Amino acid sequence: MKLIVGSRGSRLAVIQSELVMGAIAHSHPEIELSLLTMKTTGDRILDRPLDKIGGKGLFVRELDAALREGKTDLTVHSCKDLPAEIPADLPLAAFTRREDPRDALVLPQGAAALRGPIGCSSLRRRLQLEALFPGVETVPVRGNVITRLEKLDRGEFGALVLAAAGLKRLGLAERISRYFTVDEMIPAAGQGILAVQCRAGMDTAFLDGVGDRDAAICARAERAYIQALDGGCSSPVAAHAITDGSSVTITGLYVDEAGRVSRKTAGGPVEQGEALARELAKQLKEDASWREK
Length: 293
Fold this sequence. Notes:
Radius of gyration: 19 Å
Number of strands: 13
Distance between the termini: 61 Å
Structural class: alpha/beta
Strand content: 15-25%
Low-confidence stretches: none
Number of helices: 9
Mean pLDDT: 91
């Protein structure tokens, strides 16, 4: 059996795809695996904010096409970078064990303190940074992790906020100056988890050594929350779930039309994770409506 794995071409994306390929090879050494990398539209357009050019879908368009056309058999994504809505013909078939879900502050090489604006890629991070550090200056930044770090070290920013998981997978954990707890800065839905996408109807038994039950419960609950709020790339919604095996607890962030930030937590049986997330989203929207009145 041969499988072709589709991936974005960045160093981090390749490392993440190789992690999944390694897990498949460990469980199924008889499978012949190869990697096909490609540059997506989102990777090519770096001079404009994502919300101005089409959102997170620009990072999966070419990968989805390759999967549909049979050029690849599965695709590996950072779960946090996936659009809220997934095509029915290309379902998410597995979620890997979660790496560190926290966001991290990175200073320029050799710097001991923050001097200058913080490069920040999402409104979710910007709003939470401003709540933590009133008066802080944030500026948009595009490009993969390595490109952003190069810009930082050239002095274009005083610091960056990046996902700790990506830095750790790149072997760059030493660059982290400060971790934000998940209470200080609620992560993006799916942060730290890798998602494997396949064609509908495929026999995905080869993923038996890839998927992680707790990660799947949390990822599906977090994604249900952002779907309920129509959370796209430019939307500042955020969600983080944890599970102890039989129950799941999810915390959601919501920003109303006036820019007011609110958060709320709900919990219950793992079987109800997605329903709990949708109800949490509904409650936060209703609370915001009452405040407006």
